[in-house]
Design goal:
Elements (H helix, E strand, L loop, with lengths): L2 H17 L8 H7 L24 H16 L4 H13 L7 H11 L24 H4 L3 H15 L3 H18 L4 H11 L3 H12 L5 H8 L5 H14 L4 H10 L4 H16 L6 H5 L4 H12 L1
Length: about 300
């Protein structure tokens, strides 16, 4: 299995666990005081994840793990399989259940199909769930994109999230083909006619003159793709060759650091490879054995 593909998967999952400690803390001074030096995982500061502990995933990472499980056990992407597995896990879930998940779960329980159940949420978090698809479709863009869009629509069926998914799927695909994030973004910019995408790229490149703290504060720390997409792009571009520092600065910027981190992490992991992700961070994942089991099935 290619190390850049593994880098994308672990890059996303490790980013989520790394952000757990400060996830949804918007006061950056509180984060700085709590975590003077970020060298690993921490227990959550907020009550949103009060059942979690250092090394666990947020609810974003948990759903990505369920998706990885579905892909491994089916050895292909099956929306039916994933939606059934997602429904079963979410029905018993003791972690935080956001509005997109509660809406989708209610719709599935009412008998709506996976393509009818999705919420109108514009949250960025679901975009990072595409990373495990690289294990199957890293060299087949059309299948990659088709599967990415279907699984995203299952829970987040809004125009902006769909656009975000198309954008980051193409970016991830190009990086997996060996192009640097900067080169890939320039290629996308040159051919895109979408004003939203072009603006994301423009402001992300312009933001490199500023600190990450200033940039994320300007774009917005919240869950929406409106600020989340350019925020993730800032991290990707500013720390193109430094996964570790991207993760640290992302957490210090506050807000929905888990979503931003997962999206940036999968691109930086794909670009720099598995070796760029600190081995102690991977080893400290509480779901490491489960992840390795699924990766083993897919590589068999």
């Amino acid at each position: 299995m290619k190390l850049n593909v593994l880098g994308a998967v672990y890059g996303s999952l490790v980013a989520d666990a790394f952000a757990l400690g400060a996830h949804w803390v918007y006061d950056v001074k509180e984060i700085e005081e709590a975590f003077v030096r970020l060298d690993g995982f921490h227990n959550p500061l907020t009550q949103y994840h009060n059942e979690k502990k250092a090394g666990d995933f947020t609810h974003y990472g948990d759903q990505s793990l369920w998706f990885l499980e579905s892909l491994a056990l089916e050895k292909e992407f099956s929306l039916s399989s994933f939606s059934s597995r997602w429904k079963a896990y979410m029905t018993e879930y003791t972690g935080y259940i956001d509005s997109a998940s509660s809406t989708t779960l209610e719709n599935l329980k009412k008998g709506k199909s996976a393509l009818e159940a999705g919420s109108s949420s514009q949250d960025l978090s679901v975009v990072a769930r595409i990373a495990p698809l690289a294990l199957l479709y890293a060299d087949d863009y059309q299948q990659f994109l088709s599967a990415a869009l279907l699984q995203v629509k299952m829970t987040h069926n809004s125009a902006k999230v769909i656009l975000s998914t198309q954008f980051f799927t193409e970016l991830l695909y190009l990086v997996l083909q060996g192009k640097s994030p900067k080169t890939a973004l320039s290629e996308i910019e040159a051919k895109s006619e979408d004003k939203i995408v072009l603006n994301w790229i423009k402001v992300a490149f312009a933001s490199l003159e500023h600190t990450t703290l200033e940039t994320i504060n300007s774009f917005g720390q919240s869950c929406s793709v409106n600020g989340g997409c350019p925020g993730a792009l800032h991290l990707i571009l500013k720390y193109e060759d430094d996964y570790e520092e991207a993760m640290r600065q992302n957490v210090y910027a506050g807000g929905d650091s888990a979503a931003r981190g997962m999206v940036a992490g999968m691109i930086l992991g794909a670009h720099n490879g598995l070796s760029a992700i600190p081995a102690p961070w991977i080893d400290a994942l509480n779901n490491k054995n489960r992840i390795e089991k699924y990766l083993g099935i897919l590589s068999a």
